[in-house]
Design brief:
Strand content of chain A: 5-15%
Structural class of chain B: alpha/beta
Order of helices and strands of chain B: EEEHEEHEHHHHEHEHEE
Radius of gyration of chain B: 17 Å
Mean pLDDT of chain B: 89
Bound molecules: adenosine-5'-triphosphate, magnesium ion
Largest sheet of chain B: 6 strands, mixed
Number of domains of chain B: 2
Oligomer: heterodimer
Number of helices of chain B: 8
CATH architecture of the largest domain in chain B: 3-Layer(aba) Sandwich
Strand content of chain B: 25-35%
Number of helices of chain A: 10
Largest interface: A-B, 20 and 29 residues
Distance between the termini of chain A: 30 Å
Order of helices and strands of chain A: HHHEHEHEHEHHHH
Strand order of the largest sheet of chain A: 2-3-1-4
Largest sheet of chain A: 4 strands, antiparallel
Strand order of the largest sheet of chain B: 6-7-8-3-9-10
């Protein structure tokens, strides 16, 4: 990184002059770098958003579960008490409590309206519990519940939670893979462009070598150009990509799976890494190509 | 300065020459002659490490060029001024910039007055801002000579520096080379031009080497 900065800071005018301008193909490198950076912004947004999603689901949901007791009204208090006793002696449970009538009403409100006579309905009793970090042995708890309170059913959400979390994790992985691929493609593209420029300037390089130029001096002329092109193109593409992400429809609470494809808070700093990374890739690719070619010239 | 010990060179086929030993002492003045295709240019290329010998050793100031890294060879070329037979330039830079190129790549400061003085010496003041492709063959050779001496090198190797020049200009450049030799520079000139050698011998004590029958010989006083 320091080499890249030194390169940009150094007055490269003398070095730049000795290699003729590459002309009309220069903007192609800038354009490709911009396109790659634009894609990288989206891959990054995908990786970050799905990462957040996976964390939220596995974190918040994994720690909570409910027990539903369906029993005839007269058995309800006994069974509820039995379940609470089981929970009190089960390891891995941080907190538990039976939902009271008001909470039940709040849960049903959105579906049946506020006037529902909750107390007259044969509703199941719900017990919310929170697991500790170690978690609870779901199968063991189920067996004990079956023995003590036949009407109790443990719903630990894993049935539907697990595939969602793994889908989110896989999406994050795909996002990261895409970033790596974009980086590789950028390196390949810059290498090809640099090789073309080096080949077109074979005569110039030979003359420079004959009058005593060091390899690093000759390489610098090319490295500087392609690093600046990679940097400026990536900066352009990143800005456009960030604008596009910012203009995505606002995430709303009911939006479900696709909400929040974007950056949050400090997450906006991540895409800022793309231009320097692109510059570093351009620097390394061009330098490698230049030194490889110079080895063939005495 | 430059020493060749038992050097042989081949471009893949048979040896172009072999068993060549040569010592360019500091401040010496040598001519190199021989028929076309005998290997004069090849011998010079060995001296500035554009080629490596197929046998024997080439050393510069006591150091075998084979043991030198690429940066060492670049530094060596900063101390050896070379006028190439095919005078290659950077065609997008002006004549003045081309002449100053060894200073530029060595990151040494450029004195514009000295540069113009040098261009005046080789008669290229008017062409300072021209591009190399606009020069005549003789003008290219003079520009190449100016480029070879601008670093004030310890050694000057010139390959047919007067090949395309009229006699007056040839003498003028010879005088420049003799002046440099008097300042202590080591000079080696490959040339076919016997008149040039005779003219030089009146000004300095020059030794004449000759490549013939794949060997290097010291030419006698028969010139
Ligand atoms: N790169 C090369 N590959 C193969 N053969 C070469 C190469 N360079 C030169 N030769 C051959 O080596 C021989 C000597 O070439 P060289 O240029 O050293 O001759 P010269 O003495 O300088 O001739 P001239 O007086 O015409 O300049 C020639 O026969 C030439 O064909
Ligand atoms: Mg020759």
């Amino acid at each position: 990184m320091r080499a890249v900065l030194a390169l940009i800071r150094a007055d490269g005018r003398g070095v730049d002059r000795v290699v003729p301008p590459t002309g009309h193909t220069a903007w192609l490198t800038v354009l490709s770098a911009a396109a790659m950076a634009f894609l990288a912004v989206f891959a990054l947004a995908l990786a970050l958003a799905t990462g957040r999603l996976a964390d939220r689901w596995s974190d918040a949901l994994a720690r909570s579960a409910t027990i539903r007791i369906s029993a005839p009204v007269d058995q309800m208090p006994t069974q509820t008490r039995a379940v609470l006793e089981v929970l009190a002696t089960t390891p891995g449970i941080a907190d538990y409590r039976a939902l009271d009538e008001d909470e039940m009403r709040a849960l049903l409100d959105p579906w049946f309206g506020p006037d529902l006579p909750v107390e007259t309905l044969p509703l199941p009793q719900l017990i919310a519990l929170t697991e500790t970090a170690e978690g609870v042995d779901g199968e063991g708890l189920r067996l004990r519940l079956a023995a003590e309170a036949p009407g109790a059913v443990l719903d630990d959400h894993t049935r539907w939670r697990r595939p969602l979390v793994s889908a989110a994790e896989r999406l994050r992985f795909l996002g990261l893979i895409s970033l790596v691929l974009i980086g590789g493609a950028t390196a390949g593209m810059i290498t090809l462009a640099a090789q073309a420029a080096l080949a077109a300037n074979g005569q110039v390089i030979r003359v420079l070598r004959l009058v005593g130029a060091r390899d690093s001096y000759i390489a610098r002329a090319f490295v500087r150009r392609f690093t600046l092109r990679g940097l400026s193109g990536a900066a352009l593409g990143t800005v456009l990509g960030m604008i596009a992400v910012a203009l995505l429809p606002e995430a709303d609470a009911a939006g479900g799976f696709l909400t929040g494809l974007g950056f949050e808070g400090a997450g906006w700093l991540w895409p800022m890494m793309i231009p320097p990374m692109a510059a570093a890739v351009a620097f390394a690719a061009t330098r490698a190509a230049a030194l490889r070619m110079l080895r063939g010239i005495r | 300065m430059i020493e060749l010990q038992n050097v042989a060179m081949s471009y893949g086929g048979g040896d172009l020459f072999s068993e060549i030993s040569l010592k360019l002492a500091p401040g010496s003045f040598h001519f190199l002659t021989g028929p076309s295709g005998a290997g004069k240019t090849t011998l010079l290329k060995l001296c500035y490490a554009e080629l490596m010998p197929s046998a024997g050793h080439v050393s510069f100031m006591g150091r075998d060029v084979r043991t030198m890294g690429r940066d060492d060879i670049a530094a060596l070329r900063g101390r050896i001024g070379v006028v190439h037979q095919d005078c290659q330039f950077l065609d997008h830079l002006s004549v003045a910039e081309n002449v100053a190129l060894p200073l530029t790549v060595a990151r040494r400061p450029l004195d514009a007055r000295e540069l113009m003085e040098l261009l005046g010496w080789v008669g290229l003041k008017a062409q300072a801002d021209a591009l190399p492709p606009q020069l005549s063959g003789g003008e290219r050779q003079r520009a190449a000579l100016a480029r070879a001496v601008i670093m004030s090198p310890d050694v000057l190797l010139a390959d047919e520096p007067t090949g395309n020049l009229d006699w007056d200009m040839s003498l003028r450049l010879l005088t420049l080379l003799v002046e440099l030799n008097r300042m202590g520079k080591t000079v080696l000139i490959a040339t076919h031009d016997l008149n040039l050698i005779r003219a030089a011998k009146q000004q300095v004590s020059a030794r004449v080497l000759r490549i013939a029958n794949r060997r290097l010989q010291l030419a006698g006083a028969d010139l």
